[in-house]
Amino acid sequence: MKELELYIHIPFCVRKCAYCDFLSGPAGGPEREEYLEALVKEIRSVGDMGRGCQVSSVFLGGGTPSILTPEQIGGILYAVRETFTLAKDAEITMEYNPGTGESERMADYLKTGVNRLPMTGNFESWEESTPGKSFSRPMRKPEKPGVTISISI
Fold this sequence. Notes:
This protein has 4 helices and 5 strands. The protein is an alpha/beta fold. Strands 1-2-3 form a 3-stranded parallel sheet, with no helix packed on it. The protein has a two-stranded parallel sheet with strand order 4-5. The radius of gyration is 16 Å and the shape is globular.
């Protein structure tokens, strides 16, 4: 069976960072919901292209995918699972910016099937978006085998 890797773009962020060249920007709840609805339809519409293939990797990038709720991420991944054949050991990556939520929220993303959470952004933007918080603070690693957490600087 042929191997297939999926990239799913989430174009939303709290604010556009000076270093970012990707298609992204702030958007409110209604715009996000409209995009997600269209995204799920698009995922389902391209399922025939994946026939005879097994998905080894799903990458949710952006923008800032962690601006979405775990329920919204779960909805995207549900559509992927319904539409494509995922390898049992598929890597499911979601870029995570700590400025978009508490570290406890990571466990909720992991429940959706995400098994790799690279922390993205720059330390200045993390600190600006979370006044009074320092990201040198310890973060508990989720106690789930096979989960990778990394920091991209």
